[in-house]
Hints:
Layout: E1 15-23, E2 26-33, E3 38-42, E4 47-61, E5 64-69, E6 73-76, E7 82-97
Antiparallel strand pairs: 1-2, 2-7, 3-7, 4-5, 4-6, 4-7
Amino acid sequence: xxxxxxxxxxxxxxxxxxxxxxxxxxxxxxxxxxxxxxxxxxxxxxxxxxxxxxxxxxxxxxxxxxxxxxxxxxxxxxxxxxxxxxxxxxxxxxxxxxxxxxxx
Length: 104
């Protein structure tokens, strides 16, 4: 679903990001991945939850490597280095608290 007030961004090759809803305390974001696309390793001060709405992903969280499929979710604490690799094209729904102002 395209929301004109929240444009689609391409943060990495094969990845599209779109804010779905937000206020100062919480942000909901859709990330759509092509097979093989990666979410680069990074960290941020926000607590993040991720729900796999479609596809399959290999997640890296701190020293852990996890494979998540449709219906799985993960919480990433503040300032923990994380990223992912898309194993089968899909979509992640991420929630951030507080809001990621850098996505607006």
